[in-house]
Amino acid sequence: MMKMRCMLIEDEPLAMEKLKGFVVKHPFLELDAAFDNGIDALVYLQTHTLELIFLDINLGELSGIQILETNKINAKIILTTAYPDYALKGYELNVTDYLLKPYTFDRFMQAVEKAQNTNTKNENLQPKPF
Questions:
Q1: Cα R_g (the chain), whole angstroms
Q2: Could you tell me which of 94, 86, 96 has the C-alpha nearest to residue 54?
Q3: Are 48 and 33 in contact (CB under 8 A)?
Q4: More confident call, 4 vs 120
Q5: Where would you tag: which of 51, 58, 98, 112 has the fewest CB atoms within 10 A of its CB?
Q6: What pLDDT shows up at residue 70?
């Protein structure tokens, strides 16, 4: 199986370190970039192609939901958040999975497997039919 190039967008240092540790332990993930804010991440995405993005929702000036709503992401998305209230919105935006903090390595692995087994990228990019 090919490695999935991934990016982390997480503004909480401890959560970022945990996520990096999980990614490094996973044999099929390759960490491409990590950002603590959505603006830098979107700039990076203009010139880089990734297969998977771990996206926190509460990021300060630009939320994870707002990033998804820009329609500029062509990758599978796994939301990582401490707030269960965004799950429905995440699924409306066609995210691959939703990791509720604090999550375990097993739950992380489950989300990554789901991303590996789904063929679609973030459908958010496709024009919505009327």
A1: 13
A2: 96
A3: yes
A4: 4
A5: 58
A6: 83
Per-residue pLDDT band at 130 (split at 50, 70, 90): very low
Burial class of 110 by CB neighbour count within 10 A (0 to 12, 13 to 18, 19+): middle
Q: Which tokens belong to 117?
A: 């087994």
Distance of alpha carbon 74 from the chain centroid: 11
Residue reference for tokens 């999935």? 4
CB 51 within 8 A of CB 5: yes
Where b means 16+ CB within 10 Å and e means fewer, 15-53 reads: bbebbeebbeebeebbebbbbbbbeebbebbeeeebbbb
Contact 52, 115 (CB under 8 A): yes
Three-state SS at 8:
strand
pLDDT tens digits along 49-71: 999 999 999 888 889 999 998 87
Q: What are phi and psi of 115, to 5 degrees?
A: -65, -40
